[in-house]
Structures are given as structure tokens and as C-alpha cells.
Amino acid sequence: MEQVEPKPAVRGGFAAMLDRMENVYLAVLRAGALLIATLLLAYAAWLGVSGLYKVSRDVKSVKEAVASVSAEDVASVDLKAQEAKAKQAADPMRQQRSFYQGFAKRYLALYRSKFEPFQQPDDAKLTDQEFTSLFVDMDGRLTAIERGDLDFAQDKGDLEALLKAVTGAADLKVTKDRLQAYRRAKKVQVARTVTEMKTERYCSYYGYYIDSCISWSTREVPVSRTVTETRLPDGIVYPADLFRAYHQKFVDTLIERREANAAQAQKARVEIQQDNANGSERLWTAIRIVGAFVVLMFLFLLIALERHQRRIARADAGSGQG
Fold it and tell me: 230 - beta bridge partners?
């Protein structure tokens, strides 16, 4: 089968397109090289000038200014600030202690107004000191702050959130129903059997030939007894226990959600670190591709020079024959 040769017009158009692309790439390469060279020259000049300036500086030229205090400076003392500093020096935990004392009063006022009124007449009441020890533990918190185990700013925010949450819970219908149920509840006598262990002395070795115990020992034996106690119906709790349950629920939920948030944040950090590593790899790949492109353009430049030399050689040969 006879092979069809490409048309001269097609070959010429393709060659012209290659020439145009080659001219564009060479122009871009030339402009880029000139721009980079200019930037390098400018950067080198800036480094040289700034370096000369820094080298020319003399440390002996720096003279220490004379310090002076005027009468107006002395009279402008802030007496309140000085007093606060004196108090702070006398009690470094004064600010923290003041907050915890104030919080304990507000928290106790919430319990006294929202929970305690539903107690029954024969119920024992929590004293102020007992309440503060159970629900605030000011001394323990101050000790933890001094050791660096507790952040006061965070703990302050947590306690304010605790007060707000328990105050809101106290106004909910479910809380009022629970307190009303306790106030109407009748305590009943419940008998139960309690088994305890009792130490008993016994004869561990009996001498029958002398009809007497030779060795004595002790052992633990179970002893059962019946105990009668007063109980509330199932599902009914004391107001103080309900308040304690709300308090503990807030603490447990806060810790649980804080741990969950920390885990989620750590997961996000790991993902970002992975993205950073992947992004760096992509950037280096892009740089390598650009480098390959520059090398390719350099090859094109060599080819263009070689073609130019061939054209000159052909032109010279043609003129010589002429």
C-alpha cells in the first residue's frame, strides 16, 4: 500500500507553531533569568549596605543615661496600689481567698433558698462550715493553686458556670417535683438482717488424758442480727443529696466534655500536621517540577543556539557558492 506523505502546508504550519512556542518559552526564560539576577543583585547590595552599617557601629558610642527622680514623681504615688501590694504581700492568696469566700456565700444562698425549704422538720441541717467544706473546699483549692496543680482563672470560670447551671436546674419542673415528693414522703421502718464477723476464743488442742484444754486460739465467726432503720420510699432523695447529685453531675459532665473536646482538638491537630507534611511534600514536588522545566528550557536554548548556528552555516555556504 502506498504511504501518503504529509502535505507541505501541514508540515510548515506545525514547524511554525513549534517555532512560536519555542520563542515564547525562550522569552519567558530570558525574562525570568533577568528578573532573578536583578533580585539577587539588589539583595546582595542590601546585605552589603546593611552589613557595612552594622559593622561600623561602635559599642563605646552608647552612653548610659543618668537616672533621676523628681519631687513630682515621688508625690504621684498611687496609695491604693501601694496598699494593695502590701495586702498582697501579707496574703499572696488574698484575691483567690476572697473569691472563694464570696462564691461559697452565693452557693450556700442558692441551697438555702431552693433546696433546704423542702426538708422535713426532723431533718438535720447543714451548717455553713459543713456546706463550704463539702461543696467548695476552699483550703484544698488554695493549696492546689499554690502547688501549681490548679489554674485559678479556669477554676473561677468553672465555679461561675456551676452556680449558673445549678441555679437553672433548681428552677426546672423536674427539680421542684422531686423536692415536693420528698416533703410529702413518709419515712417507714424497715427491718433487715446484718451479718457481722465476731472474734471467738476456742480450744484448738484438747488433752483427753488430762480432761483439759492444752492450747487456745481465736477465730472469726459470722453473727447475724436484725437492724431496724428509717428509710424513704424508692426514688425519693433528701434535698441535700439532690443538691449534691446536681453538683457532682456538673463536675463529672464538665470533665467528660473537656476530655472529649481535648481529644477532638488533638485529632484536628494531628490532621493539620499530616496536611502540613503533605503540603510540604507537594511544594517540594512543585519545585522539582519547576526545576525540571527550567532544565528543559535550557535544553531548548541549546537547541535554538544549534539551529541558529546551522542557519548561519547554511547562509555562509550559500553566499560562498554564489
Answer: 189
Which residues make Cβ contacts (< 8 Å) with residue 199, sequence separation at least 6? 218, 219, 220
Q: Which amino acid is at 183?
A: R
User: What are 252-297's pLDDT values in tens digits?
Assistant: 999 999 999 999 999 999 989 998 888 888 888 888 888 887 777 7
Alpha-carbon gap, residue 319 to 322, rounded angstroms: 5
Which of helix, strand or coil describes residue 219?
A: strand
The CA distance from 169 to 162, in Å, is 10
CB 238 within 8 A of CB 178: no
Closest by Cα among 249, 244, 251 to 116: 244
Helix (H, G, I), strand (E, B) or coil at 15: helix
Beta carbons within 10 angstroms of residue 159's beta carbon? 18
Asked whether the beta carbons of 94 and 87 are under 8 A apart, the reply is yes
Of 96, 157, 104, the C-alpha closest to 127 is 104
* Residue type (1 letter), 284: W
